[in-house]
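Format notes (please read before filing issues)

Several people have asked whether sequences and structure tokens are stored in separate files. They are not. Every record keeps both together, in the order shown below: the sequence lines, then the token lines. Line labels are part of the format and must not be stripped during preprocessing.
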Amino acid sequence: MAVGTPRVRVRPVLSDDERDLSEIALGSRTIVVAIGSQLPDLIDKPLAWTAGITDAGYSIGHSIFVAPFVCLAAYAVAARRGERVLSGAFALAYLSHPVADMISQLLRGRVVDLRTVLWPIASPPATSHGGFLDHFARYFFRYVHQLLTGGLTVQIVFQSLLGLTVLALWLFDGAPIVANVWRLLRAQRHR
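Then the structure lines:
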């Protein structure tokens, strides 16, 4: 190629089925971020509240000592699939969860309890509020009560703005997964 000649990037022409599959693959980014952002709770809450293996809902999944291994495992899986960028998205989402938990403590006017991220060296005090459904009901009704009686607190405003921002970004990105499934269903119906 001569110096100064612009490079032209040629994209392959995809069949309708291949295009549908590639659009679903774009939704995998959304899935990776959603799973990564919730994985600490998906690990720790059942271990504590259902299985009784740990004392509190903050242990293995929230631990800064375990996080590098989880992120390396995500990298290995993504690299094997040829999608290393997904591991970065997962790691950012996964690592943001414990940070958001600590910010939440600050927004509620509490002192940040670093024991929530220091397992196995330290753990927060044990909770004894029953199983998973008991905890869910307790937190859900406390939150609803706070919304109905406490007015807008800094925490509620922050959570609402964060949720609206995520929703806006998801819509701006074309509502991955939902839009892809909708297009697939419509395409199947019209065949």
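For reference, the curators noted about this record: The mean pLDDT is 83. The helical segments are 16-50, 67-80, 84-107, 132-149, 154-172, 178-189.
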